[in-house]
Design a protein that fits this description.
The structure is a homodimer. By secondary structure, chain A is α/β, with parallel strands linked by helices. Chain A has 6 helices and 11 strands. Chain A has a 7-stranded mixed sheet, sandwiched between helices. Chain A has a two-stranded antiparallel ribbon with strand order 3-4. A two-stranded parallel ribbon of chain A has the order 8-9. The radius of gyration of chain A is 15 Å and the shape is globular. In chain A, 54% of the residues are buried.
Chain lengths: 182, 182
Amino acid sequence: MKKAYILLAEGFEIIEAFAPHDILTRCGVTVKTVAIGEGKSVASSHGVAVTADLPLAETDLGDGDLLILPGGYPGYARLGESKAVGDVLKAYYNGGKLVGVICGAPTVLVKNGLAADRKLTCHSGVRDQMGAYQVTGNIVEKDGNLITGVGAGRALEFGFLLAETLTDAETVKKAKQGMQIL
Amino acid sequence: MKKAYILLAEGFEIIEAFAPHDILTRCGVTVKTVAIGEGKSVASSHGVAVTADLPLAETDLGDGDLLILPGGYPGYARLGESKAVGDVLKAYYNGGKLVGVICGAPTVLVKNGLAADRKLTCHSGVRDQMGAYQVTGNIVEKDGNLITGVGAGRALEFGFLLAETLTDAETVKKAKQGMQIL
């Protein structure tokens, strides 16, 4: 069974974290949320308190197949400031594991000097923080082991692309039927 | 400022609860989550632990403008079994306040004998529990003060329709831009 980790920093965007969580779970992927700060309780950008499955300090997430970084402010900024997040992101990206980054979180790639040669998308509000990166502005982008999404209103498309990459089209089709899209 | 309450029962669908939460908050609506059981911690249908803002036992939700019932199993079944939920639902619906119900939660209307004369939609999996109700199967329906949605994959559309009804088209347009849909 495939395994995905979602990193939660105080101020994360709840749809961007939990639309992928929901879709991947429906597709049979084991999904664990990981709090990057003290303790396991993390508040979303709109103040929703979620209890993560585990704190980043207690694991290296080495057994995962997919790492997801949601956006939301100041969540994505906090992900970018964390050395521990940078370390796990580098391990996944450089190890050829699937990495999913959405909204403001592509700036975390910049902060860690990753994926400058990849085509990607991000929220229009952080585009000026992306420097010379190849930002398309599309809804989602997939380039090698990197999948990016533009923002909260496209978190479902982002989640479906992650799920299709990690599982298969037939599995995702069934999830879409259960979610009443098909 | 308008105020919305979202009822959370153990086993609720997280996208159906928090896509509307996110959209309404972006539109300037005060949104509070309400746990219908013991305490304030409620697990979603996929085991995500959320701490609600308040327990239903401690308030009558009388100051709200909108009541939302998310689906998710067994969340919607628990909403249907709760007399306290039935009481607040009747107070909102019969009082002409806006009511939003999605996925399996339209069965809660049936259990409380409400809205049999309204056009509505629901998840295909609960259609046989809707008896002689006028189920269209559309993505969303609005009939008077009742807005219904078909399921998790359409929770954004459901949230936008609720927000447009409670605020205005210009406000929703700005939220959509922030969420990178427009």
